[in-house]
Design a protein that fits this description.
The protein folds into 2 domains: 82 residues, 2-Layer Sandwich (Alpha-Beta Plaits), CATH 3.30.70; 138 residues, 3-Layer(aba) Sandwich (Rossmann fold). The radius of gyration is 18 Å and the shape is globular. The longest helix has 14 residues. By secondary structure, it is an alpha/beta fold. It contains 7 helices and 14 strands. The strands form 3 sheets. It has a 7-stranded mixed β-sheet, with helices on both faces. A 4-stranded antiparallel β-sheet has the order 2-3-1-4, with helices on both faces.
Length: 279
């Protein structure tokens, strides 16, 4: 299967690149790389019209002082990993975590090392939301035992959770290729306590989770919150991300109607993550 690479150049890049990624993610694009000049977005050819690859985005409505341009490249499947290798640099979460690909020099790692082959899945640590969720896990005083990772993508958060001490992790994604990627990455990191499941929130039939991680998008998170409240133990923690700083208080207020109390809000480059506790 061939893939489409959409290259968008923005001047200035911020805050427009983050807004663009959020919109493209809702319109068929699966993976993203932020560059110095804009965004690279990737999708299966079957999901995007190459004649109008930016449909649903705001590019035609930008302020007059913002310049933009886009182009499309078709990438054959056998070239996909080479394309990632050219774009995927190591990710450092302060000095506590380094997220690497198999082709990186392992000597550059600082703190915990997690090896990820991203393929088509979201979650390499490059995006601000994954970075914040990773940071939040490291800042827990004690890693909870039973963890649910919704929208697991590459499985990176599930892998970090196990390496930090979680003993039972369920990693769920609606895409079968993400589940396959999670299984591969778990094996790559010698993880034995991660179960990968293909499906949506209604596929989760166990409960009594100590911690739920959900890095998806605002609309999906809102649709899931009632489920999260039922799946968590009383006093359990919920980490949410995938939305902008401007939406954080709205998410906190919405979550409160399901019994969640705000612990703190993290921010990075106009993106937010929220830590909540079930009362």
């Amino acid at each position: 299967m061939d893939y489409l690479e959409l290259k968008v150049e923005l001047s200035p890049r911020e805050p427009w690149s983050g807004v663009l990624i959020a919109q493209l993610a809702e319109n068929g694009y699966e993976s993203f790389v932020e560059t110095e000049s804009g965004v690279l977005a990737y999708a299966q050819m079957a999901d995007i019209n190459p004649e109008n690859p930016v449909k649903g985005s705001f590019l035609d409505e930008l302020p007059s002082d913002v310049k933009s341009d886009w182009s499309v490249t078709i990438i054959q499947q056998q070239n996909w990993n080479a394309e990632w290798e050219s774009q995927f640099d190591p990710v450092y979460v302060e000095d506590v975590l380094t997220i690497l690909a198999p082709f990186h020099d392992k000597s550059v790692a600082r703190g915990m090392s997690v090896e990820i082959m991203p393929k088509m899945s979201f979650g390499t640590g490059h995006h601000q939301t994954t970075w914040m969720m990773s940071k939040a896990l490291f800042e827990l005083e004690t890693m909870p035992a039973k963890v649910l990772d919704m929208g697991t993508g590459t499985g990176v958060l599930a892998i970090i959770a196990e390496k930090l001490g979680a003993t039972e992790i369920l990693a769920v994604d609606i895409e079968d290729w993400s589940v396959e990627n999670t299984i591969e990455n778990a094996e790559r990191n010698s993880c034995k306590k991660i179960t990968a499941l293909c499906g949506d929130i209604d596929a989760v039939v166990t409960d009594d989770f100590d911690l739920i991680l959900a890095n998806i998008n605002k609309n999906v998170l809102k649709a899931h919150l009632s489920y999260y409240a039922k799946l968590l133990k009383k006093g359990g923690m919920l980490f949410l991300s995938g939305f902008f700083t401007s939406d954080a208080e709205e998410m906190v207020e919405f979550a409160s109607s399901f019994g969640f109390q705000k612990i703190r809000i993290l921010n990075k480059d106009n993106w937010a993550a929220v830590e909540l506790q079930l009362r």
